[in-house]
Design brief:
Shape of chain A: globular
Oligomer: heterodimer
Number of strands of chain A: 11
Structural class of chain B: mainly beta
Strand content of chain B: over 45%
Helix content of chain A: under 10%
Structural class of chain A: mainly beta
Number of helices of chain A: 0
Distance between the termini of chain B: 36 Å
Order of helices and strands of chain B: EEEEEEEEEEE
Chain lengths: ~110, ~110
């Protein structure tokens, strides 16, 4: 089955700086890669996703890049703000079993004002 | 408002006392799933359901049961809870497995 590793586990940045979170996956058949943000005490919410036929996707200050050859994908947050502080989870779903969504262990991002 | 509703939100109980966590969605989604969230382990899938009467095991199904008798409901059953099932549980629904998932607000279970 799919195995997703996420780094770093914690990340602290100054407001206005950029933050990058990286995930690697094991199954080359994976084709759907979502990112979820979970604020303290709240439910995970989708912030951006990418499919394997696309190399990069942007939505305002956030972007996701996918390198299928290296089997890794990254979340980029630019001009970070204190409200970006949260735990971020990546996930991957293999094509042959798209019900088998595997999540990374999460990254706790802290943006210092 | 589109939502996934879980109940209860919090529960403290004792080992061996059967409990059910309900999950209901109002988006007519075919796909529903249950996850548990533990520190340092992320979200791990317990069971999922692709449609009414169709369920399958996820990554950590031991000690849990589910049922899907109606499209909107997907209860999680712990027949004989044990302390290692103390965790934060999330129900989610989506149009399919490779689609954005909508999570409920979570249920924090403590098994003493």
């Amino acid at each position: 089955g799919e195995n997703v590793e996420q780094h770093p586990s914690t990340l602290s940045v100054q407001e206005g700086d950029s933050a990058v979170i990286k995930c690697t996956y094991s199954d080359s058949a994976s084709n759907y890669f979502p990112w979820y943000k979970q604020e303290l005490g709240k439910r995970p919410q989708l912030i951006i996703d990418i499919r394997s036929n696309v190399g990069e996707k942007k939505d305002q200050r956030i972007a996701v890049t996918l390198n299928k050859t290296a089997k890794h994908f990254s979340l980029h947050i630019t001009e970070t703000q204190p409200e970006d502080s949260a735990v971020y989870f990546c996930a991957a779903t293999p094509l042959y079993n798209n019900n088998d969504m595997r999540f990374g262990a999460g990254t706790r991002l802290t943006v210092k004002p | 408002e589109a939502q996934v509703t879980q109940n209860p939100r919090y529960l403290i109980t004792v080992t061996g006392k059967k409990l059910t966590v309900t999950c209901s969605q109002n988006m007519n989604h075919e796909y529903m799933s249950w996850y548990r969230q533990d520190p340092g382990l992320g979200l791990r899938q317990i069971y999922y359901s692709m449609n009414v009467e169709v369920t399958d095991k996820g990554d950590v199904p031991e000690g849990y049961k589910v049922s899907r008798k109606e499209k909107r409901n997907f209860p999680l059953i712990l027949e004989s809870p044990s302390p290692n099932q103390t965790s934060l549980y999330f129900c989610a629904s989506s149009l399919g497995g490779s689609q954005p998932q909508h999570f409920g607000d979570g249920t924090r279970l403590s098994i003493l």
